[in-house]
Amino acid sequence: MDLATRHGDKPTSLKSVAERHDLSEHYLEQLVAPLRNAGLVRSVRGAYGGYNLSRPPEEITAGDVIRILEGPISPVEFEEEDNPGRRQLWKKIRDAIAEVLDNTTLADLNNQSSDSDDSYMFYI
Q: Which range of residues forms the domain containing residue 73?
């Protein structure tokens, strides 16, 4: 979210993100590595280096980020479910969650948090 807010600006260091949000820089390094490998963020080396989103926040969905950091979106392992009715229910729940995440962009999340006095903190 921090990179989305600063999209179009100079690269943002993880140290500055960590300080702004009271997070561990080491934790952020663990998050940014798979995002960089997947092509959602790019790193810039040098004295004024850091990280930027590789695409505009309007083109990156919450689903993109969550799948990269957490894997497939599934609230439970329903494939093992013996009851076909329950299995169908879990599939519908999974699909509904995926639809919301895939239709919510980082720009949407930034707009929602800037519309209120309290900003959201998204934990993964």
A: 61-104
The answer on 54 and 1 residing in a single domain is yes
**Widest CA span in the chain:** 58
In a domain, 32, yes or no: yes
> pLDDT tens digits for 6-31?
998 999 999 999 999 999 999 999 99
78, 94 Cβ separation under 8 angstroms: yes
Give the span between the Cα atoms of 43 and 53, in whole angstroms. Answer: 9
Helix (H, G, I), strand (E, B) or coil at 59: helix
pTM score, two decimals? 0.81
Is residue 89 in a domain?
Answer: yes
Residue 15 neighbours by CB distance under 10 Å: 11
